[in-house]
User: Which sequence fits this backbone?
C-alpha cells in the first residue's frame, strides 16, 4: 500500500497567512491537494497540522484524511514528517507520497506516474523532474522510514535523500507545477493569474 503524507504545519511567515487556507480553483490549497490525491487513487492520507491547526480544521474540508497535530511544529519540517510517518506506519505500508502544502497545482497523472515508477523500481526515493530540475512531491520507500524517524529536528530529510542518491529514481514529468513553490504573495499572485 502507498499512502500520502501532506505537510501543512508551518507558520507560512513569508506568505503572511496560512497556505493551507489560501484560495485556489474554487477550493483551498489543502483541499486541492487532498482531491488530487484521491483522483490519483491514493486512499490513505495523513495531514500534519501545527500553526493555527484548529482554525484550519474548522475552515478546510479534510474529508477522510487523518489529521495529525504537531505541537512542536516550530522545530521544523522534519518533526512534522516524523509525526506523519508514525501515524501512517503499518505492515502494509510500502511507501509514502510526501506532499508539501505549498505545491497545490501538481496534477493527478503526475502523482500516478511517480507511484508507478516506485512500484516498478522499488527505489528508496522517487523524485519528479521537469526540464532537468527536481521538484515535489517525492515518493519515499519504507526502507528509509527508520532513518528519517531517527533524524534530529534540525536535520532536513534531504540529507537522507542525498545519502541514497545513487539508488534514487528520477522521473521526467510534463508538469511544471512540481517546481512551483507558492511561498510568498508574489508567487501566489502569479499562480492565481495563470502566470509562470
Assistant:
Amino acid at each position: 500500500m502507498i499512502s500520502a503524507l501532506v505537510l501543512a504545519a508551518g507558520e507560512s511567515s513569508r506568505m503572511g497567512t496560512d497556505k493551507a487556507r489560501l484560495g485556489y480553483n474554487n477550493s483551498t490549497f489543502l483541499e486541492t491537494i487532498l482531491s488530487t490525491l484521491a483522483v490519483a487513487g491514493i486512499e490513505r492520507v495523513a495531514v500534519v497540522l501545527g500553526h493555527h491547526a484548529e482554525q484550519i480544521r474548522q475552515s478546510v474540508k479534510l474529508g477522510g484524511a487523518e489529521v495529525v497535530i504537531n505541537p512542536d511544529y516550530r522545530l521544523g519540517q522534519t518533526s512534522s514528517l516524523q509525526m506523519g510517518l508514525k501515524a501512517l506506519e503499518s505492515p502494509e505500508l510500502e511507501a509514502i507520497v510526501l506532499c508539501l502544502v505549498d505545491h497545490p497545482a501538481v496534477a493527478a497523472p503526475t502523482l500516478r506516474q511517480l507511484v508507478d515508477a516506485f512500484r516498478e523500481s522499488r527505489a528508496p526515493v522517487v523524485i519528479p523532474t521537469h526540464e532537468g530540475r527536481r521538484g515535489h512531491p517525492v515518493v519515499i520507500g519504507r526502507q528509509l522510514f527508520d532513518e528519517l524517524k531517527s533524524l534530529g529536528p534540525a536535520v532536513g530529510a534531504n540529507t537522507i535523500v542525498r545519502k541514497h542518491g545513487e539508488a534514487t529514481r528520477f522521473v521526467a514529468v510534463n508538469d511544471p507545477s512540481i517546481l512551483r513553490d507558492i511561498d510568498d504573495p508574489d508567487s501566489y499572485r502569479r499562480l492565481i493569474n495563470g502566470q509562470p
About this structure: The mean pLDDT is 94.
